[in-house]
Design brief:
The protein is an alpha+beta fold and 282 residues long. It is built from five helices and 18 strands. The protein has an 18-stranded mixed sheet that branches. A hairpin with a 3-residue loop joins strand 3 and strand 4. The protein folds into two domains: 129 residues, Diaminopimelate Epimerase, Chain A, domain 1; 141 residues, Diaminopimelate Epimerase, Chain A, domain 1, CATH 3.10.310.10.
């Protein structure tokens, strides 16, 4: 039996950029074990399987890394939404919903080609000693920006957010089997181009992803972090982030966030490109 599959580049501003995603649009009847094997065979940071749903009730989607299933991830949410709109519905709908492990995630389609997902409320977890974090990253304590905490944050998937003082520190960092966190998201002020205000990298060896080119879930955590700690000053956050440049997959993510009392508004956006399609012999 064969199944259709698609490959998209998510958070991509041009060819051979962004984060690759494989998607099977008709995955009903495929077992969990087989989905995991397929994801391992593709060996992208994530692969998605659409198992059912509708525009009215939302589309049921499962997300797998090469090693495990995830309740939420950013670039799979946008890439899968793009395919549902353009290859399944074949309609210029302005909004749809994905039913994921963390619950329903709405996605909207802007006229400028950016897809926006609204992420869940953040949870701010454990903070870590900067010296311990530096050791875990192969850096010096002075490379950590001591004005801001090294802290776990989750909007459905937890990351250790690590503020660095410079791009030199960001470029030199390395995380293998990190001792402090399964997934580390490192960032500093600056940009790889004039549109960006943040440079970032993400390591998740524990999930089978040594370095991720573009991480929508982690950037949602970053959006909340920037608002919580007024990284760029008080008021709403509206910035672009560059990621993936060190591994030759340049990506651009758009972040919007605002904190009102204890409630956050968090949106992460990016562009999606269809790269390939084919048949998979299940």
């Amino acid at each position: 039996m064969t199944r259709k599959f698609f490959i998209t580049d998510v958070f991509s501003e041009g060819p051979y950029a962004g984060n690759q995603l494989a998607t099977m649009p008709d995955a009903s009847g495929i077992s969990t074990e087989e989905m995991q094997r397929i994801a391992r065979a593709f060996n992208f940071s994530e692969t998605t399987f659409i198992t059912g749903g509708s525009l009215e009730k939302g589309f049921d989607v499962r997300i797998f890394t090469p090693n495990s299933e995830l309740p939420f991830a950013g670039h799979p949410t946008l890439g899968t939404s793009y395919l549902i709109r353009n290859e399944i519905l074949k309609s210029n709908v302005g909004e749809l919903t994905l039913n994921l492990g963390v619950g329903p995630i709405p996605v909207t389609f802007a006229d400028d080609g950016i897809l926006w997902m609204t992420q869940n409320q953040p949870e701010f977890g454990t903070s870590f000693d900067p010296a311990d974090v530096a050791t875990d990253l192969g850096l010096e304590p002075a490379d950590i920006d001591a004005r801001f905490p090294c802290r776990n944050v989750s909007t459905g998937l937890e990351f250790l957010l690590v503020p660095l003082v410079s791009y030199a520190a960001l470029k030199n960092a390395y995380v293998g089997q990190g001792q402090l966190a399964q997934s580390c998201f490192l960032f500093c002020a600056g940009g790889y181009n004039s549109e960006q205000r943040v440079q970032a990298r993400m390591f998740a060896a524990g999930l089978g992803v040594m370095e991720d080119p573009a991480t929508g879930s982690a950037n949602g955590c970053l959006a909340a972090y920037l608002a919580e700690y007024e990284y760029f000053g008080p008021g709403p956050v509206d910035v672009s982030v560059g990621q993936g440049y060190e591994i030759e997959r340049p990506s651009q993510l758009y972040l919007q966030s605002e904190k009102r009392t204890d409630e956050f508004s968090i949106r992460v956006g990016g562009k999606v490109r269809l790269v390939a399609e084919g048949e998979w012999k299940v």
